[in-house]
Amino acid sequence: MANFLHIETSTQICSVAVSQDGLCVFNREDREGPNHAVVLGVYVDEALSYADSTGLLLDAVAVSCGPGSYTGLRIGVSMAKGICYARKIKLIAVPTLELLCVPVLLGREELPEDSLLCPMLDARRMEVYSQVFDRRLQSHRDIQADIVDAGSYAEWLQGHPVYFFGNGAKKCEQVIADGNAHFIEGINPLAKYMLPIADKRFFNEQFEDVAYFVPFYLKDFVAKTPKKLL
């Protein structure tokens, strides 16, 4: 197992955690935000001080890579990059929608085996970013920006219980009227839940290029832009 600093800033909540050999040993959360520009530096400084004072050598920084808040993601990724440069450690990107599934899977062992998970992040009006996973966190549909109506997700709701959650799910509850649709409240992407995904990516050596990595919202732009212009 490896040791990670985890940074999550994709929503109004700002959170930082440190994990050591599979256990969360440090955690800070601010739910009064968005205050990322104010509190993230403080939390990261506390986390690094904790790691240094306990002799914990960090192997990588795991950062939520979106989709999510434009400003929040920029702040979180910039901080993560700076730490990776300064400490010469790896950068791991944790997809925000996949991260949202972790507390659902950890807290609800009674989910039917054929359940599908649909994390949702609020975009605007009736639009959400969403993705569809099974209980093994295998993606059955890639990230899309969906305008939600009564027929949304019909193909997934046929024959499967589908669990919707995240800050975009609440506004869809009255629209998706299907007996297989279930809505879970209070699920947020938090740094303390990043460990399983970060550990898997570390083991598989799925590291990001610190110089050129950008979160989800900028990928299409960067793909069309020569690196010398960035």
What is shown here, in short?
With 230 residues, the protein is of the alpha/beta class.
Mean pLDDT metric? 92
| Main sheet: strand order | 3-2-1-4-5
Give the overall form.
globular
Q: Biggest sheet: strands, sense, closure?
A: 5 strands, mixed
Assign a percent range to the helix content. Answer: 25-40%
Portion of residues in beta strands equals: 25-35%
The end-to-end span amounts to 35 Å
Order of helices and strands: EEEHEHEHEEEHEEHH
In DSSP terms (H or I, runs of 4 or more residues), the helix count works out at: 6
Structural class: alpha/beta
Radius of gyration, rounded?
A: 18 Å
pLDDT < 50 runs, ≥5 residues = none
Number of strands: 10
Task: Give an account of the 3D structure.
With 230 residues, the protein is an alpha/beta fold. It is built from six helices and ten strands, in the order βββαβαβαβββαββαα. A hairpin with a 2-residue loop joins strand 2 and strand 3 (23-30). It starts with a strand and ends in a 7-residue tail after the last helix.
